[in-house]
Amino acid sequence: MTRLTTLDDRTLIERTLAGERESFDLLVHRHTAAVRKRVTMLVRNTADQDDVVQETFLKAWRHLASFHSRSSFRTWVTQIAGNEALMRLRQRTRIDAPAFDLDQCASEQVSPLELVLLAETRRNVRKAVESLPERYRLALITRDLDDRTTEEAARRLHLCPGVLKTHIFRARRMLSAAIFEERAA
Within 13 A of 164's CA, how many CA atoms are on the CB side? Predict the structure, then answer.
């Protein structure tokens, strides 16, 4: 296994498709943190998070032959994770919607009002991100949400790292202003 750790993702994918299961195990090991981060942003229930992560890698395994290196494996697998998480949320909403009661959410740690405020804050942040000019929105998402280094994100967006940092700085400043305006309204 140690000799495999020096191989890049593309080589590991080729070896996996050739039947080397250890290569896929290493891909899973390399990218689990990024997948879990994406899932955690969308799904709060720990058991559901674990299920979504597992389902993500199962789907990646099943569809690995359809991976066309237009993006990195990490980008591809985190996109699968996001889709799986959203599907899980939709299923939960359909199942839980009729029986939803704020009193059921009450706990000593988080009040129903705090849950509502948190959901409203998430909606406001999502709306603010969507309202950013495209270059700033792409910079922010590619760097922060896709869990890339500045250099990786800059290469992906065909920018120099300094320009990317400027875009991210401006995007964050615009987000802060938009969220502050929303709260003041």
Answer: 21
Per the structure block, which two tokens stand in for 174? 């615009």
Global model pTM greater than 0.85: no
* Domains of the chain and CATH, by start: 1-100 (1.10.1740.10), 103-185 (1.10.10.10)
pLDDT in tens, 100-117: 444 444 455 656 777 777
Listing DSSP states for 14-55 in one string gives HHHHTT-HHHHHHHHHHHHHHHHHHHHHH---HHHHHHHHHH
Start-to-end Cα distance in the chain: 57
Long-range pairs of 17-26 with CB within 8 A, sequence gap ≥ 24 = 17/64, 17/65, 24/61, 24/64, 25/1, 26/1
